[in-house]
Structures are given as C-alpha cells and as structure tokens.
Amino acid sequence: VAEEVEAAGALAQHRQAAPSGKLRISMPQDFANVVMVDMIPQFMDRYPAVSLELDLSPRRVDLVAENFDIAIRMGDLPEDSTLAARRVAIQQFGLYAAPSYLARRGLPEHPDDLMQHDLLCILSRSGGAVPWILQRGKVRWEKALTARLTANSPQLLAKIASSGAGIAASTDFIVAEHVRKGELVRVLPDWDLPGSTGWAVFPGRRLMPAKTRAFLDMLDEVFCKDREKSA
Prior knowledge:
12 strands; D-Maltodextrin-Binding Protein, domain 2; 2 domains; alpha/beta; five-stranded mixed beta sheet; 231 residues; 6 helices; lyase; 27% strand; LysR_subst-bd; HTH-type transcriptional regulator ptxR, putative
C-alpha cells in the first residue's frame, strides 16, 4: 500500500511540473500548414520553457528509435505495443471545384460524369491515384480514375482546384478557407467519401512528459473549437 501511495504521489507531482525542454514532433506538411500556423505561436506563448522541432517529411518516423515525442498520423494506426495514441481529428472528404471550372465544363450530376472531367487526385504510396469511393445511401460507386494530376498533398490539390484547373478530393479543414471565400464549391454533395481519422501517436510511457501532455491538450482545444464552429 505504501508503494502505491508513493507512486500516486510521484504521478501527481509529475503532472504538476511545468512543461519544459525540446518537443520533437513529426507531422504531414499539409496538417502543419493548415493547423499549426495558428496553434504553434499560441503554444510558444503559453509554454515559454518549451522549444519545438517539427519534422514535416512524408516518411513515417520511428518514434522510439529516433527520439520523437509525438507523431501526427492519418488513417489506420500501426500495431505497436510500445506506442499510445489519441484521436485528434476526423477528416471529412469531399469533391470540390472552382465555380469558374464548373461554369466552363459543367456540373457533374452523377459520379459517372466525373470521367469527362479533369480530376486532381491524391498520389498513392504505390503510385497512381488513390481511388474515389463514393456512396449515397446503399449505392456505392468506385471506378478506376484517369487523373489529370496526382500529388501527395491535398492542400496543393485544393489550391490548384481553386484556380479552376479541375475537380479535387480534399478534406473539410483544408478547403474551409477556399469555400468561405467562394473559391471552391462542393461537387456531388449528396455523395459521401470515406473519412479519415487523425491520430497523435506517442511513446506509451506510464508517466507522460508535461511538454507532451501540454501539446496534446492544446490540440484537443483547437479541434474542439473547430467542431463547435461547424456545429
């Protein structure tokens, strides 16, 4: 019992410690450009004793071997008993195009109509375009795409689409500003694309460093506010 009390006391003391030291984070560049631009200055102001190192390379880092504190990852998580994870975001995908493009090429009324359009697609890891899987109720549509452009940056595809170059699949948080400005509109809004979950992955230690906990808590704050805005 005495050991349990001592451990509980150590845990409480650890949680009360002020965040400090270097925080190493790996994340996709698009996530950094859209989310971190506003969040990082707030974090630095709130926690002046923490310095940040961001790795925006597309590779999946080995958190333990490379001494990273956090990695932001999209989609499925690897099975690794040494890691823990916290869900930070649910991305909703949709098809978007500029009003000027739709005025010039016409508005698709059915997914089959997409085959007559310039499609801006996400580049898969194995090469080629990531398939667009559309669903309306119980009706599912999936066909091989002939992409006019493929890139491994949804943010870049959204920007190119906003200039009138074609129809792009992108996430709600990436296109939000373009939609607000009227630069992009939703295409086939009755058809849903599979969503994707964003995870914060970190070493599964019993005692989480205060700097790590502070960053994860601020991520929760940011996405909680975004959910309230969209509600």
